[in-house]
Amino acid sequence: MTNTTPDERDTTNCPRCGGSLVMRTSKRGTNEGKQFLGCSNYPKCRFIRH
């Protein structure tokens, strides 16, 4: 059993596929250079959290 709160689990696991969320940096578009959480199962799962 881990010592994580429900909020922490929500930010580290993808709600769509259950994969882990990793910090990524946008490389193009209007959000270029900004960071976001993206699913580690990309491109199979394209979930992102800003």
Please explain how this structure is put together.
It is a single chain. The protein has 50 residues and is of the alpha+beta class. 14% of the residues lie in helices and 24% in strands. It has 1 helix and 3 strands; from the N terminus they run H-E-E-E. The protein has one helix at 6-12; strands at 21-25, 35-39, 48-49. Strands 1-2-3 form a 3-stranded antiparallel β-sheet, with no helix packed on it. A hairpin with an 8-residue loop joins strand 2 and strand 3. The longest helix has 7 residues, at 6-12. The protein is elongated, with a radius of gyration of 12 Å. The model has no long low-confidence stretch (mean pLDDT 86).
Give the secondary structure arrangement, pairings included:
Layout: H1 6-12, E1 21-25, E2 35-39, E3 48-49
Antiparallel strand pairs: 1-2, 2-3
Ranges where pLDDT stays below 50 over 5 or more residues in a row are none
C-alpha Rg (nearest Å): 12 Å
Level of helix content?
10-25%
Averaged pLDDT: 86
The topology string of helices and strands comes to HEEE
The amount of beta strand, in percent, is 15-25%
Shape: elongated
Summary, kept brief:
This protein is of the alpha+beta class and 50 residues long. The protein is 14% helix and 24% strand.
Which terms would index this structure?
50 residues, 1 helix, 3 strands
